[in-house]
What does this fold into?
Amino acid sequence: MSIFKRKRSVEVVSGDIANREVEGLSQGQIVRRRFIRHRGAMISLIVLVAVILFVFSALDFQLFFIKYHGWWKYSFTDQPEIRTQGCPGGLGGCPTLSLNPFGAFGLGDHPFGQDDIGRDYFALVMRGAQRSILVMFIIGIVGGIVGTVIGAISGFYRGWTDSILMRFTDFIITIPSVIIGSVIGYHFGNLGVTFLALYLGLFAWTGLSRLVRGEFLSLREREFVDAAKVAGATNRRIIFKHILPNAVGVIIVSVTLIMSGAILLETALSYLGFGVVAPDVSLGLLISQYQDSFSSRPWLFWYPGIFIILIALTVNFIGDGLRDAFDPRQRRRISRKERSAERKVANA
Amino acid sequence: MSTPVLKVKDYTIEFWVDGTWYPAAIDMNFELQAGKTLAIVGESGSGKSTTALGVMSLLASNARTYGSVQVKGVEMVGTSAGHLQKYRGKEVAYIFQEPMTALNPVYTIGAQIIETLRTHFDLGPKEARTRAIELISMVDIPNPEQSVDKYPHQLSGGQRQRAMIAQALACDPALLIADEPTTALDVTVQAEILDLMRDLRSKLNSAILLITHDMGVVADMADEILVMKDGRTVEHGSADQIFNNPQHPYTKELLAAVPVLGTSPKRSLSYSESAKPAPVLNLEDVTIEYPKRGRVPAFTAVKNLSLQIYPGEIVGLVGESGSGKTTVGRASIGLLPIKSGKLEVVGHDISHASQKDLQKIRRHTGIVFQDPASSLNPRLPIGESIGEPIFLAGLAKGADLARKVEDLLDQVELPRSYRNRYPHELSGGQRQRVGIARALALTPDLMIADEPTSALDVSVQARFLELFQDLQQKLQFACLFISHDLAVVDILSHRVAVMQNGELVEQGDRDLILKNPQMAYTQRLIAAVPVPNPAEQEKRRVARLASK
It folds into this structure.
């Protein structure tokens, strides 16, 4: 590969070598390049997108007047007969998924098995994952907007505005989120998962608003803000045009953290019985409903669990990658692989 | 000849950036004997600091080196970390540019000196402390017994730099590497630190490797000079030879770019002293206070200051850091409220103006900030930054605005294509030009320039000053030029005002103030400015020390 060629370069380097990497690129392009180089985050992004496409395309759904027909044969409300054939210990509804390439490799009729009343567990898990992902995004967006606005206002105006907003934030922080969630779930759970997520989002912004406030406090002292003020910019213009774009790194990173927390919160609430209510399902609800079957029919536990871990983990990794990409102090180090490849060329 | 303290041979440093090796220093060759000072000079990015760090392998992990560096005849390149550890601090000590960041803020200076001592010598805590106090008194920090327990933030900038030197000297190093040791300091403090370093060199017989871009400091300290450009050695010779008989065109250029106090011609105004028009900026008895915050008491930054600036006139405002120069500049443009007195800009009183009035008045003003890295929004292309004042004043939009921005870029001699570039893609000098273009956007009557050259290299500064003079000649704006550099003020201004501790000490015609200062403070300030001429500097030093 040409980039590893040892270059005893004779060319004259003018200016700062450290900036060579970012020459001719906009801030957005720099961040994108750094993110793409973060292997864990890129893999996670691909996995997460794949999971979302997989989960949402599996079942039928209706968005306003568009009807979509899913590729999976059962819906989460169908109740086919319970299959007992080939199950160990005479239990019904065991999974037919087999990954043994030398045996009966394939999905079978009910890859994740069936529940007590014969519902297809694959369809249930898909439906549950859909709900969980929906909750995750809504909480992330609502929490992100509320947190950014409150943090931006208190950081920019300081003084008593700041005091009031931050004491209000303190007040929200002191209430454990599971308790808020339970109360909300108890009162609004029957309104559907979207409303539940909206209300939860209204309590998920505290950490973000603190971070945004800190960022605004330091950015508002920068000289370019003074320059904008002298140029005649209004406060609104300074906040949205000059400061906010510079704080976007912090916001994106902590929104991903809110999202990964949200999926666990939804799971915990549903497990406690205050989240999504039957006949709808969510991953947490599935786990809670079948907790008694842990020893006898563990698959009822595994499959929703795997999806919870997969979603929470990938979102966290993406957040980590974004944090690295936005950090201007972080320079890419020369990796061992590149170092040794370079050495090989040098010795040859 | 004895073994040199430092011998660098065919030393090359390269950095791995984005898949390619870029050389930062190429084929460096020099020797340094005990008791001598070698100065490496060059512009930022020429590789001088990299070379200094490379001596003790303190480079970033993406660097590789070739060649040889010998300290007292022992090879340093390619040796183990443990081996280097024995030499770092003991034989080779560093003094960095910014003492506030180089000292650890959570430990007392005593603790940091003691740490160095106990790492290299078998000393008990008590003995180490005694030695630390000895060192602190050696570098002339007042009350060494108490100062040893002070934290870095409790000391002034000069004292912090002294503490750094004390730490560096803890183990009587054979070689002291000083990387821009006085760049962050005021001229008067700089003179004291240089005196101290010279003093210690003769006392301890250490060799000093001095990295600096200030030719005045070089003239003051160096026995030998090495000029670097783009990683290569351009010229290497004795101080006398480099200053008085430079061979390489780059060295000549570098020396020519250094502003020298009292050499620029007098600048005259188009009107006579008796027929003065109304002042553009009028400060009468102005007091500016930073209000008390919590338990921090109110701080009066500027006291009863009166100053007038007339159309087409440049007034240089000089003083040490903390004297209130910047505060005056910011208040003059309505960024800070004044507590009492009268402040008029272009005939409008802005001391009690509403936000709306202020915006109207600001159309007649422009400001250039000190730090070009911070004064441009990193997320906006520079064309937008320049055009913002015009856009917000409602003077132009769309294609019309683009044309105006291009005109402004032409004026500050930047290519038009730079319109879509981002600040981080430009060099410091280019960014400062963008700052000027933005300040000129509304063709102001009054320009405030707050240390616009302090972050620039000499050659860049020289070009910048030329451009600034041309523009002022053409556009005839009045300007308050704030600077700590007397030589720069000397080139530009018609009149000079000197500030100390928030008060105006002296003001008047440029030649009157700079050639024949009346007040002791001004005299001290002028005497401390180093001159880029070793013989002249020697004379001045003797005179200064004698007057103490």
User: Anything to note?
Assistant: Chain B is about 40% helix and 25% strand.
